[in-house]
Structures are given as C-alpha cells and as structure tokens.
UniProtKB/TrEMBL annotation:
Substrate binds at residues 91, 152-154. It comes from Zunongwangia atlantica 22II14-10F7. Keywords: Metal-binding, Phosphoprotein, Signal. The keyword Methyltransferase does not apply. NCBIfam families: alk_phos_PafA. This is Alkaline phosphatase. The active site is at residue 70. GO terms for molecular function: alkaline phosphatase activity; metal ion binding. PANTHER family: BIS(5'-ADENOSYL)-TRIPHOSPHATASE, ECTONUCLEOTIDE PYROPHOSPHATASE/PHOSPHODIESTERASE.
Length: 537
C-alpha cells in the first residue's frame, strides 16, 4: 500500500483560512523614502511607526524606469511591470497613430457620473496589461471586490484595473465632490450621493496652520524663502493659510487638494467606501486601491524642503493611524494586509540647490527644442520632427520614407547634436533601445520606460538635479525621483527590514504570491522572497 504523507507544514501556504479579508494598497503621491527618517521623531505611534515596527520595510526600493510620473507610477505599482509593457508612458503623451496628445485615463467613449463637467470621461482603456486587482477579481470569480479611491482620477482608475466594481475621484471647481464614470456605473450609489451632500468639502475650507508649533519643525527649511510657489491672493508662502478666503482665487473647491485636507477628505471617503461596500466582511479578499494626492500637490507648490510638506506628512501620519484603527475595529486586527509606496519621489528645488553651491543642469527646454528643430530642418528638411513631449522626440516615419532617409542615421545625427547641448546628460535612440538589452544603469531605466509601440524615437536625459526655481518636480531617472518607501503590514506579513534593492514592479507579484493568486499578465518584477520566505517559516 502506498502511503502519501503530507507534513502539516507542507500544506498550501495560501489556504483561505489565513488569507487577508481586505488588502489596502496605499500610494502616497510624491513620497520620498527619506520622509520616513526625516520626520520619524514627530510621527505618532499608530501611523508610519506602527507599520514599520510591526511590518516589513524595504529601505532601498526604487522605480526601475523613467519618466517617473503619476500615471505610469500608479500603473507600475499595480501591474508589476513598467511602461515598456503596460503602455502608460506618461501622464499625457503624443499618440503617433492619431497625431493627438492623449491623457493616460482619458476615454471619450464614456460619460461623467456625478458631475456636469467632463472630469468623469475617464477609464483604464489605455492600460494594456492586468493589475493585481484584476487578478484578484478573476481568482475569486468576481466575488472579491475592488474599489479605487483618490483625489486624482488616474490615481483611482489605473490601480483599480479593468474589472473594478468602482473607482471614485475628486472633482474640484464648483463641485467639491467625488465622481465616477459610466465605465463603472450609470449613477453614483446612494452612499456616495450622501457623502457628497454631507458638507464634508465645505468643512475643509478652513484655516491651514501647522499641526504642532512651527518652531519645532526643525527638519525643514525656513518658512519664508524664495523657492516656494504659494497661493494666489497671499503674498508670502507662509503659515497660516486662510483656505476659505483663498479658495475664491484658487479654483474654489480645487484648493482643498492643494492642502493636507485633500488627504483628510480622501480618507473620509475611503472609510465610507469600506463601510458601505462591506469591504473585508467575508472570506473572499477585497481590495481597496487608495491614493493620497495632496502630498504631491503640496510638494510641487512648496518644494520637498518646506514646512508645508513636513506638516502634510505629519497629518498624513495621523490619517494612517486613523485608517489602521478603523480597520482593527471593523475588519479585525490581523485580518487585513496593507502595502504602502509612492508613485515617484521628488527632487529638491533647483534654485535652492544652486543657492547652496550644488550644481544642477537647469536645461532650458524651449531653447533646446528650437535648436534641435533648426538643426533637423537644416540637415533633413522641414517636417521631420512630429512632436516633442516627456523628454522624447517623435520623428515622422512617412517623411523619412518619402525622403528616403534611414531612421537609424537620422536618430544618430540628432543624438550627436543633442549631447553637445548644455543641460543634456545622456541621449538614447529607438535603434539603440531595440538592439541592446540594458541590465543596469540609466540605460536600464530608459529601456523599461520605452514602449516600442507608443514611445518616441530619441530620449533625452537631463543632468542630475535639474529642476525649477520654485517648488519641486520629478520625472527623472535619478535617486531623488526613484527612491520610494515600500512597507508591508498585517496578515501574512512578518516583521523585518532590508536594504536589499527592491523595485516598484516587485509589489504586484509579491502581493499576488501573498494572496496565492496569478500574477498580473505583464509582470516583469519578482516576488520579494526575503519577506515571503520569512512569513512561511
Ligand atoms: Zn504623482
């Protein structure tokens, strides 16, 4: 008689018994890794500290491609791959097949739900691969729900995937409410209508002052300086801000996302969604794709070294603490899993770096564009260059065919011209990217961001440290834009930390492994064994 013995330890690691009932995937827009360390002493016990002290901290987590923008970032987190495969090559890009600029979540075939504006004509139709959320829907025979929530449409829609029950985002202007699109529904559910009528948005048109005494914000630069944007209607970018008064000159309800109150209302809405949609209440794992956007808007406006950014993160820390407390009570401690990352990081203000003797490229894009266009016209004739966007030059293939020009020769000539220009650090061409396989360095990041079908033909890399005179930006291949937090916490997550490099495309396969489900179909990342192996010990 043949006896097959199964060791009790060798059972499937992914039985339903200990599966999380709810996954909350959190993307913090423009969060740099160093904010965890920089503001650590001021964080409270229940937020970032609780996640790190109990969960797993990947301290050397990076974007593996450029451009490091919001649309590609959110998509890469949830698809486990880079623009090379998922096709979201920018927030906006030149569609060479229609000859028009397109937006990453734009969909002209759907209509707005909950607003009379066009802010709801959105869907994930341009995303070419599946998400973790899609795979969970397929795995659970569509019993496990997906809800996406963010201030930004792209922050809600792309993470929620093709098969989401719903995605909701914020419409500012005269709306001040969360909306959706006919891609998901014909009208807003009752609970959303109720939320929108509750006066929440109005309650955030209030004074923004620092959470703690501003004198204690010693981790940031001085409040008044020449490197910050600020609001129309207020001369200096200094605390306090009368948001109600300033709203009139700053787009009415659109001002809320420009303050930490945008994160507050996002959390309010997310908790309302968990309750009304009964997320995490049965054995089929549900997923809430949650993205906090105000962190990005405050960063762009005031710069990464500002007291405004510090205050925004101290308040976000409270939001996280409130979220965990809510989940403990309503889903149960140990019954949910959280991951937290960012869609890109952000650099210091270029002008600030220069003021402390640190060199930056300060590339003048307008000037450069005119110069290489003149060069191309003179060398090859007018009409060769079709579009310039996202640091990419799109060439006209029909023009080259008619003029009997070899594309590789054209690319090389322009490449040589470009590399001689000030502010230009590196240049890559389509021919190089299609005939080489870069395994590291900047070429690797450019190649991962290069989609054969959608991308341009010549890619320009600016000098390290490039940026504007006021406020922070992002998009580059450099550490300040690629180094983001990656934290896991809750069910099936052991405590630990590592400096071993992880990449943003590893998140989706790691979560899929944790849930015991199929990886998204374009996955190029890997499950993070250092954490998962520890969990199954
Ligand atoms: Zn972003």
């Amino acid at each position: 008689m043949l006896l097959i013995a199964f060791s009790s330890k060798a059972q499937s690691p992914n039985t339903n018994a200990d599966k999380p009932k709810l996954v909350v995937g959190i993307v913090v827009d423009q969060m740099r890794y160093d904010y965890l360390n920089k503001f650590w002493d001021k964080y409270e016990e229940g937020g970032f500290k609780r996640i790190i002290q109990n969960g797993f901290n990947f301290k050397n987590n990076h974007y593996n491609y450029a451009p490091t923008y919001t649309g590609p970032g959110h998509t890469s987190v949830w698809t486990g791959t880079s623009p090379m495969n998922h096709g979201i090559i920018g927030n906006d890009w030149f569609d060479k097949f229609t000859g028009e600029m397109v937006y990453c979540a734009q969909d002209d075939n759907v209509a707005s739900v909950g607003t009379t504006t066009n802010a709801g004509k959105m869907s994930p139709n341009r995303m070419q691969t599946t998400t973790l959320t899609d795979q969970n829907r397929l795995h659970t025979q569509f019993r496990g729900k997906t809800i996406g929530v963010s201030i930004k449409d792209r922050g809600a829609i792309l993470p929620a995937g093709h098969t989401a029950n719903a995605a909701y985002w914020y419409s500012g202007g005269n709306d001040g409410k969360f909306i959706s699109s006919t891609y998901y529904m014909e009208e807003l559910p009752k609970w959303v209508q109720k939320f929108n009528k509750s006066g929440k948005a109005d309650s955030y048109l209030k004074e923004w002052n620092t959470l703690y005494d501003i004198e204690t914000y010693t981790e940031s630069g001085v409040d008044e300086n020449t490197f910050e944007g600020g609001f129309r209607g207020k001369e200096t970018a200094t605390f306090p801000y009368d948001i109600k008064k300033l709203s009139k000159e700053n787009g009415n309800y659109s001002i809320i996302p420009q303050t930490p109150f945008g994160d507050d209302i996002t959390l309010d809405f997310a908790l309302a969604a968990i309750e009304a949609e009964e997320l995490g209440q049965d054995e089929d794992t549900d997923i809430l794709a949650l993205s906090f956007s105000s962190t990005d808007k405050v960063g762009h406006n005031f710069g990464v070294n500002s007291k405004e950014v510090e205050d925004t993160y101290l308040r976000l820390d409270k939001n996280l603490s409130d979220l965990l407390t809510y989940l403990d009570k309503n889903v149960g401690e140990g019954e949910y899993t959280i991951f937290l990352t960012a869609d890109h990081a952000g650099g210091h203000v270029g002008g600030y770096l220069n003021s402390v003797k640190i060199p930056t490229g300060n590339l003048d894009y307008g000037k450069l564009k005119k110069e290489f266009t003149d060069f191309a016209n003179q060398q090859f004739g007018e009409g060769l260059i079709k579009n310039v966007s996202n640091d990419q030059i799109f060439l006209d293939y029909e023009f080259m065919a008619n003029e009997d020009l070899n594309p590789a020769d054209v690319e090389t000539k322009i490449e040589h011209f470009l590399i001689q220009q000030p502010g230009v650090y590196k240049v890559y061409t389509r021919t190089e990217l299609q005939s080489n396989n870069f395994s590291n360095g900047i070429g690797y990041l450019i190649q991962n961001g290069f989609n054969q079908k959608r991308s341009g033909d010549i890619m320009i890399v600016e000098h390290p440290g490039s940026g504007y005179g006021r406020g922070s930006t992002h998009g580059s291949v450099f550490n300040y834009d690629t180094h983001t937090p990656l934290l896991f916490f809750g069910a099936r997550v052991p405590h630990g930390e590592t400096f071993e490099r992880s990449e943003i495309v590893d998140i989706a396969p790691t979560m899929a492994a944790l849930l015991g489900i199929e990886y998204p179909n374009g996955t190029s990342g890997k499950p993070l064994a250092i954490m998962l192996d520890k969990a199954s010990e």
